[in-house]
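Fig. S4 source data, part A: sequence.
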Amino acid sequence: MKTYLDFEAPIAELEKKIEELHGTNAEVSVDLSKELTSLTQKSQQLTKDIYKDLTSWQITKVARHAERPYTLDYINAIFTDFVEMHGDRHFSDDLSIVGGLARLNGIPCMVLGHQKGRDTKERTLRNFGMTRPEGYRKALRLMKTAERFKLPVFTFVDTPGAFPGIDAEERGQSEAIGRNIFEMAQLETPIITTIIGEGGSGGALAISVADQVLMLQYAVYSVISPEGCASILWKTSDKASVAAEALGITAPRLKTLSLIDKIVAEPSGGAHRDPAQMATTLKRSLGDALRLVADLSIKELLDQRYERLQSYGRFGET
C-alpha cells in the first residue's frame, strides 16, 4: 500500500481507480487497456502539476515521507563492496549513524550517513535518525580513517536534528558536533555531502562540512525544524507552514544563496516513487562531484574549502 500525503489526495483517488481497473481487467475478458493507459497518463500529468508548485511546508512533508530512500538504500544501490564499521571506541555503537568502507565506480571510499527506521522496532533502534554523541564520534573516526588512507568521504544527511536527551547532553553532545565541524573543515581528503531528506540543525552540520554539497530536489536543510521555529516565534507549532516559508529551507532557495552546489532532480512524485531511478541519478551526480575535487592538491582542497565556508552569509548595507 502506498502512503499518500494530504496534498496528494487527487493522485491517490486516480491511482485507486487504476488499481480497480487492473483488478477488473484480470477478472473479465473485456479489454480495458485503453482506459488504463489514459488514466495512467492522467495520473502522471497530475503528479507533475501538483509537484511543480509545492510550498516549503509541502516539500518538508515529502522530505519526511516514510517510504523515502534512506542512507542504507543508497549505499546498497550506488556503492559496491560495502563493509560496515561500528563503534566510536569510547562509549558505544550509535545505530542512527551507519558507515564503512565501500567503492564508487571501483574507487575505494568511505561512506556514512544518518539512518532512520522503516518500522517501529527499527525506528526505536535507530532513534528516528537522531544521533547521540557516540554517533558523531563514530562518524569522525571513520572520516579520520579515510584521511589516513587517502580515501574520499561521502556523507548522507537525513535527520530532524541531534538527539536532545539528557544522556546525550551528559556525554557532550555540543562538543561532539563542534569537534566534527572543526575536524571536517581541515580533513585532508575530499568530502562530498548529499542532503537526502531532512537536514536539521547541528545534527546535519556535524557530517556536512564538505567540498561539494548536493541536495535532492525535495529535501530540506535548515537551522531548525519549521515546528521548532514556530514554537519559538509564535508559541505554537500550528504556524509551521509559515515558518517553513520564512526559513528558506528548500533546495532552490539554498542554491540561490550558494549554500549548496547542486540540486539533484528527483523522479516525478519524489524519490520514494522510483528509488531505482533516484539512485541512478544520484550515482551520476556523486561521480561528477568527486571529479571536481579529486585532482586538487591537499593545499588547494583545504584553501577552497576554507573560502567556501567564509563565503556563507550575505548582507546588504543601507
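Fig. S4 source data, part B ends here. The first strand starts at residue 80 and ends at 84.
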